[in-house]
């Protein structure tokens, strides 16, 4: 098996002899960066900075996107779908895109497992060879020699790329690459021989059919690769990692040797994926047959056994609960805000610490408990009492997982309940204390002190909520009035935020809408290349405008007006029969619009009467009651929350804050166009009622609403604008922010400004955050049970801890490796840079050690990049930051995390089933 793995690594290294080009976002393992939903060949383009004189008017270098329209012109639809299905990393951002990616990844893992299992079985069942070379079979000796020569070829290719060795070409291909390909052929011949001999010897008809199907899939992949038109080779070569200057076609349109290599790589990728589908079908049929025989009573019995064993034999859950209470008793000694002016961070400190403590304790418990029990049962042969009963192997695996997850569920509920009581005692107690201090300050006439305490109280209550944020797409305008993708870089190490200069034209603009262009396409609408996918960031008008209010009724009028305007546009060029139907529909909508206008006027009149009655009422309670009735007829102001930072170039005036202005622009206004860089400033939407009302529209009193505010650092700045700004907006809106204080800079990121659609319960949100920890524990339980089926408990424990650390801490590094964005080379080259104190951007001298390190990286990095498809993304299931910051965990987010956890846990449990089924457990 080790020889097979090394052989596959050499194959990858030989295929990647050319230096890799910039990573293609469409080739990312993340399904959200794949092709568009309209066509399987449309990919999210990779932006590159290029010099262009037109860019000067747009505030910087014009992003140039690699043209991909050639693919749509050259490939037939069946070829596009074949590439989508056969490419292991290609996907589409639709509901079935992640499912397809999951099937492809599981299929490739199943292919590797099936081949590895049969290779090991074949080697174990071999008969003594008649002819040997040094005690080894001739084909085994040839494989070993091919591996050694292949490693040497990798070293030679690295030396040739470093210009330390001359390159010898044969028919336009490097001789080292040809020798490496010959070594690959030897490895393929060895693999074929071993598989056929082992499967035929065992006479497994199903696996014989699988092997035949794999060869048919290979032929299909070869046919598809050969059918690819030569005109599409530049695009396909870019997706394979060929550098932009690689010559894949001759001027006559013929394939060069590099083009032939590209075709071969396409065929290899597609062949592996299609062969994986064959194995996946075989595995699915076996698993479905096993699942159909599962009985709930046996699952319950196995789960109860694991539950009882956890509490009575290991007692680890009791230890977790005791440690949690012990740490909690002294936590308040160490959790203090940075200073007295930043009491708002107290809630985040407590919530973040409690969720981190719960996560660590549960993770340690699962990592220790799950990989120990099954190996010990096998070691002491106590599992013999189970396997001799009518219990299926899959019931043993899933039953144990159910029992362990029952323990985790009980602990999650216990730790969650204790944490909520602890938070109520500390944070709730601090809130009550602040209220008392505010009342005392008011009685003493200390208004300034009371204002500061009220701000701290408001921030604490904000963090102890579940806000549903609605974000927009952020762009900037510099001090000269030119649009830019980013603001000013003030030299901070983290480039999360960009800054706008104070007392200038510089501003930050957030655009909301159900269908808006990418910021690059907004600022550079005439640039060459493919467009980025459209963004959907609408304002939830239905949530913010309360039903039955004046603003909601006005918005209904605009809904009917938009529908009527659409029908009016369809009347142009319509057939007579269709025209009569459209006229009738338009007449109906006009009547409906008139009826809504009468209801609107009546509601406005009632509101005015209630306000007048409240002003004329002499009794204060009666006036308050009337005002409350009047306010119930209007939707509340739309809340906006901001978290900005300030970069000070001068000390400024002592005691004076930094001021900023904020402006909300309705989509009917031309002051916030869709394309800021264009000369024609047209509104986002055309008012369908402009002719009816002229310049005095009672439904929308103002198209631009502006205000100023002082920026509170370390706090959430709160503001609100009238709900009438949403009438007729169809979810579109623009919010612009400027810094008013001279010599100061205001820093912001896209997520620093958002509308608050709703406020939820902190209790429910906290339990959703604990559900994320529960999902992490479920995946880790599957990994621990899987490792315990074939490893001793110390090794299984280390494997489980490795998976969790890799998925929780090192997953971003694995993502950089998989996407080719790792700067400074692989692990061996990075080690040289650390020892020699060389930065990541400096090119190392081509010494023998550097060439050797790069050669080792060429073998190791491919397998490390494949780990991103195997190591679970535990960090994606961690929702504690949302809870600590006071943001709501939406059910859609939780549902996506549940599917993500199942996509990891199910394959690991199925792998554990096959391992346990094919090993001796009670010898």
Tell me what the structure shows.
The chain is α+β, with helices and mostly antiparallel strands and 923 residues long. It folds into 4 domains: 1-32 and 78-292, no CATH class; 297-335 and 344-405 and 434-464 and 762-923, no CATH class; 497-543 and 637-748, no CATH class; 550-631. It has 28 helices and 18 strands. The strands form 5 sheets. Strands 6, 7, 9, 10, 13, 14 and 16 form a 7-stranded antiparallel sheet that branches. Strands 5-18-11-15 form a 4-stranded antiparallel sheet. A hairpin with a 5-residue loop joins β6 and β7 (483-484). α12 (345-379) packs antiparallel against α14 (393-443) and α12 runs antiparallel to α23 (793-808). The protein is globular and about 115 Å long. 37% of the residues are buried.
Layout: helices, strands, pairs:
Layout: H1 2-15, E1 47-50, E2 62-65, H2 69-74, H3 77-86, H4 97-124, H5 138-161, E3 169-170, E4 173-174, H6 175-202, H7 205-226, H8 233-239, H9 257-292, H10 296-314, H11 316-334, H12 345-379, H13 384-387, H14 393-443, H15 447-463, E5 466-470, E6 473-477, E7 483-484, E8 498-501, E9 507-516, H16 519-523, E10 535-537, H17 541-544, H18 550-570, H19 576-616, H20 620-631, E11 638-642, E12 645-648, E13 659-665, H21 690-693, E14 704-710, E15 717-721, E16 733-739, E17 744-748, E18 753-760, H22 762-788, H23 793-808, H24 811-819, H25 827-836, H26 848-866, H27 880-884, H28 891-917
Antiparallel strand pairs: 1-2, 3-4, 5-18, 6-7, 6-9, 8-17, 9-10, 9-16, 11-15, 11-18, 12-17, 13-14, 13-16
Helix pairs in contact: 1-5, 1-6, 1-26, 3-9, 4-6, 4-9, 5-6, 5-26, 6-7, 7-9, 10-14, 11-12, 11-14, 12-14, 12-22, 12-23, 14-15, 14-22, 14-28, 18-19, 19-20, 22-23, 22-28, 24-26, 25-26
Keywords: Coiled coil, Membrane, Signal, Transmembrane, Transmembrane helix
Protein name: ABC transporter permease
Organism: Tautonia sociabilis
């Amino acid at each position: 098996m080790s020889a097979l793995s090394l052989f596959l690594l050499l194959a990858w290294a030989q295929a990647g002899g050319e230096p890799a080009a910039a990573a293609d976002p469409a080739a990312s393992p993340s399904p959200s960066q794949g092709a568009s939903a309209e066509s399987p060949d449309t990919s999210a383009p990779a932006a590159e900075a290029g010099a262009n004189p037109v860019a000067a008017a747009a505030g910087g270098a014009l992003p140039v996107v690699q043209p991909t329209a050639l693919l749509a012109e050259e490939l037939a639809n069946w070829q596009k779908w074949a590439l989508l299905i056969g490419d292991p990393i290609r996907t589409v951002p639709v509901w079935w895109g992640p499912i397809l990616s999951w099937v492809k990844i599981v299929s490739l893992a199943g292919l590797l497992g099936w081949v590895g299992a049969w290779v090991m079985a074949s080697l174990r069942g071999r008969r003594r060879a008649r002819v040997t070379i040094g005690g080894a079979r001739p084909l085994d000796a040839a494989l070993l020699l091919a591996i050694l020569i292949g490693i040497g070829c990798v070293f030679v290719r690295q030396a040739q790329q470093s210009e330390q060795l001359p390159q010898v070409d044969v028919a336009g291909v490097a001789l080292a690459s040809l020798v490496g390909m010959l070594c690959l052929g030897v490895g393929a011949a060895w693999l074929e021989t071993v598989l056929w001999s082992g499967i035929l010897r065992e006479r497994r008809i199903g696996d014989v059919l699988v092997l035949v199907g794999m060869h048919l899939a290979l032929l299909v992949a070869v046919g598809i690769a050969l059918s690819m038109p030569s005109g599409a080779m530049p695009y396909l070569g870019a997706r394979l990692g060929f550098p932009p200057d690689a010559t894949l076609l001759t001027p006559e349109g013929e394939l060069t040797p590099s083009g032939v290599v590209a075709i071969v790589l396409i065929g290899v990728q597609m062949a592996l994926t299609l062969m994986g589908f064959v194995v996946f079908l075989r595995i699915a049929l076996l698993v479905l047959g096993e699942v159909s025989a599962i009985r709930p009573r046996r699952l319950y019995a196995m789960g109860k056994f694991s539950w009882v064993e956890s509490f009575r034999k290991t007692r680890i859950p009791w230890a977790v609960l005791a440690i949690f209470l012990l740490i909690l008793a002294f936590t308040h000694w160490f959790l203090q805000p940075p200073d007295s002016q930043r009491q708002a961070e107290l809630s985040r400190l407590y919530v973040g610490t409690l969720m981190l403590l719960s996560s660590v304790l549960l993770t340690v418990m699962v990592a220790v408990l799950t990989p120990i029990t099954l190996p010990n049962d096998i070691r002491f042969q106590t599992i013999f009492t189970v396997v001799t009963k009518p219990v299926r192997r899959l019931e043993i695996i899933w039953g144990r997982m159910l029992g362990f997850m029952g323990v985790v569920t009980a602990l999650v509920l216990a730790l969650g309940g204790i944490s909520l009581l602890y938070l109520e005692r500390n944070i709730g107690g601090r809130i009550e204390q602040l209220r008392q201090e505010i009342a005392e300050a008011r009685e003493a006439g200390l208004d300034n002190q009371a204002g500061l305490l009220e701000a701290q109280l408001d921030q604490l209550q904000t963090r102890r909520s579940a806000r549903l944020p609605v974000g927009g797409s952020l762009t900037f305008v510099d001090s000269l009035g030119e649009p830019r993708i980013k603001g000013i870089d003030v030299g901070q190490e983290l480039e999360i935020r960009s800054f706008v200069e104070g007392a200038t034209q510089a501003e930050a603009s957030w655009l909301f809408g159900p269908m808006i262009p990418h910021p690059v396409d907004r600022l550079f609408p005439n640039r060459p290349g493919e467009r980025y996918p459209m963004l959907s960031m609408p304002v939830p008008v239905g949530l913010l405008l309360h039903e039955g209010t004046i603003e909601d009724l006005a918005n209904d009028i605009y809904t009917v007006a938009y529908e009527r305007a659409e029908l009016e546009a369809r009347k142009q060029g319509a057939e007579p029969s269709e025209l009569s139907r459209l006229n009738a529909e338009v007449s109906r909508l006009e009547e409906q619009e008139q009826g809504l206008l009468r209801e609107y006027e009546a509601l406005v009149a009632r509101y005015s009467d209630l306000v007048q009655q409240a002003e004329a009422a002499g009794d204060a309670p009666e006036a308050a009651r009337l005002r409350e009735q009047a306010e119930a007829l209007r939707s509340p102001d739309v809340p906006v929350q901001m978290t900005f930072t300030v970069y000070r170039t001068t000390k400024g005036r002592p005691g004076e804050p930094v001021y900023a202005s904020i402006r909300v622009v309705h989509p009917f206004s031309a002051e916030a166009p869709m394309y800021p860089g264009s000369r024609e400033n047209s509104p986002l939407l055309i008012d369908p009622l402009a002719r009816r009302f002229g310049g005095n529209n009672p439904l929308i009193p103002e198209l631009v609403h502006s205000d100023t505010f002082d920026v509170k650092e370390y706090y959430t700045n709160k503001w609100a604008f009238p709900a009438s700004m949403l009438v007729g907006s169809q979810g579109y809106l623009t919010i612009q922010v400027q810094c008013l204080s001279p010599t100061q800079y205001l820093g912001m990121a896209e997520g620093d400004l958002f509308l608050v659609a709703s406020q939820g319960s902190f209790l429910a949100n906290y339990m959703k955050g604990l559900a994320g920890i529960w999902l992490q524990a479920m995946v880790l339980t599957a990994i621990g049970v899987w490792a315990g089926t074939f490893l001793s408990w110390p090794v299984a424990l280390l494997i489980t801890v490795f998976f969790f650390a890799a998925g929780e801490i090192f997953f971003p590094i694995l993502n950089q490796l998989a996407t080719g964005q790792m700067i400074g080379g692989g692990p061996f080259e990075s080690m040289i840079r650390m020892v020699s104190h060389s930065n990541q951007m400096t090119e190392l001298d081509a010494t023998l050690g550097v060439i050797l390190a790069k050669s080792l990286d060429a073998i190791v990095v491919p397998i490390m990049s494949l780990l991103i498809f195997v190591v679970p993304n535990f960090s994606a299931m961690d929702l504690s930051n949302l809870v600590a910051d006071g943001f709501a965990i939406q059910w859609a987010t939780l549902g996506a995390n549940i599917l993500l956890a199942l996509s990891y846990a199910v394959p690991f449990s199925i792998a554990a089933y096959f391992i346990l089924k094919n090993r001796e457990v009670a010898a």
